[in-house]
């Protein structure tokens, strides 16, 4: 199996703004609710010799969160689907769409098929390059705006998972004061905030909620700046919050450090960060909003191996098990019954979780 992390292929980071794709749901085909895979699958003939290209968002493999979840899906696929090769590349903060396009174009022209783009920053580049290579299958995580006959949109109900996290934060807070740290203030991360606020207020209508975004588009360093994350969370703890949730990618490490210093609690995102974060901060992570990017990436690669790739939106929601909360460490054992009650009410439709802030 290939284990090496590949660097940039040809283009270096360029200055300029990134035009970001819309994060709201939509697309050229009706959305289908995904059913995450269970267990191992045997390799199909179409998988043999497949060369997979995977383009990470800012932070790349090793961010202990969003990108690492995608990497886990690829790592699972290598032996189970018999991939011949996997090439991994990553984005740099501040680069232009042209740089992303060129990377994707080099993968496609180099025989990599399928190609998976991790994050909505690839929206425009994926749409353009996929049109140039109609025989190559593309998938993009967290974006519904890039549409085409050979593009699969892997989407998640982040607001539903974040509702459970908001409820957990309010139930765990002794000061009736919690916080939310967002990486970049874009529609996708606002979905996390909307669900978190709704969940916290469902538990305690008068709960105080602090919100801080680390950067504003077109500046996307908020997804990979632990120092900014620590500063923002420290401010919240100093102001009286005792539980802080982050949706900030690699910046979350700083939030955990702030929680440890303040003797407070933190909540992770995307991966079960009580397992993936630095060992010295894992004890302050009460739970994480799990977003099963690994499952979505594996499902897409598996569908390619069997010739069953579908274009358009594939939605991984709470009902499908695409989002959830983690229980590592046992810190939510005392409130698990209440969280599961909320989960069932969301799944049944009794509770409709907002995906936008008011």
UniProtKB/TrEMBL annotation:
Pfam name, any one: Bmp
Signal peptide per UniProt: 1-24
GO cellular component, one term: plasma membrane
Keyword Lipoprotein: yes
Localization in the cell: Cell membrane
Keyword field: Cell membrane, Lipoprotein, Membrane, Signal
Primary localization class, coarse: membrane
Domain ABC transporter substrate-binding protein PnrA-like intervals: 57-356
Domain of life, per lineage: Bacteria
Family annotation (Gene3D superfamilies): 3.40.50.2300
Keyword NAD listed: no
Annotated protein name in UniProt: ABC-type transport system substrate-binding protein
Biological classification of the source: Bacteria, Bacillati, Actinomycetota, Actinomycetes, Streptosporangiales
């Amino acid at each position: 199996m290939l284990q090496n992390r590949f660097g940039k292929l040809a283009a270096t980071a360029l200055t300029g703004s990134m035009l970001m794709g819309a994060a709201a749901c939509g697309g050229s085909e009706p959305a289908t609710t995904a059913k995450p895979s269970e267990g191992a699958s045997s390799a199909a003939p179409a998988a043999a010799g497949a060369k997979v290209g995977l383009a990470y968002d800012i932070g790349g493999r090793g961010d202990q969160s969003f990108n690492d979840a995608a990497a886990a899906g690829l790592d699972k696929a290598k032996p189970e689907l018999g991939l011949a090769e996997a090439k991994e590349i990553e984005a740099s903060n501040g680069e232009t769409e042209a740089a992303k396009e060129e990377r994707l174009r080099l993968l496609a022209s180099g025989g990599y098929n399928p190609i998976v783009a991790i994050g909505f920053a690839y929206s425009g580049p994926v749409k353009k390059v996929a049109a140039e290579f109609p025989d190559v299958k593309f998938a993009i995580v967290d974006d519904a705006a890039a549409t085409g006959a050979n593009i699969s949109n892997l989407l998640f109900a982040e607001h539903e998972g974040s509702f459970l996290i908001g409820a957990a934060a309010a139930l765990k807070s002794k000061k009736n004061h919690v916080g939310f740290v967002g990486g970049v203030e874009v529609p996708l991360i606002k979905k996390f905030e909307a669900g978190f606020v709704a969940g916290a207020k469902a538990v305690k209508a008068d709960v105080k909620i602090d919100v801080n975004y680390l950067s504003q588009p077109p500046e996307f360093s908020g997804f990979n700046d632990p120092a900014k994350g620590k500063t923002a969370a420290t401010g919240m703890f100093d102001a009286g919050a005792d539980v802080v949730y982050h949706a900030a990618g690699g910046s979350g490490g700083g939030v955990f450090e702030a929680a440890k210093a303040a003797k407070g609690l933190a909540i992770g995102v995307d991966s079960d960060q009580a397992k993936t974060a630095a060992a010295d901060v894992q004890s302050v992570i009460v739970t994480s909003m799990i977003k099963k990017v690994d499952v979505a990436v594996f499902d897409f690669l598996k569908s390619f191996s069997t010739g069953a790739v579908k274009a358009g939106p594939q939605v991984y929601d709470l009902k499908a098990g695409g989002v959830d909360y983690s229980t590592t460490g046992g810190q939510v054992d005392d409130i698990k019954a209440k969280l599961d009650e909320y989960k069932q009410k969301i799944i049944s439709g009794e509770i409709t979780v907002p995906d936008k802030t008011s």
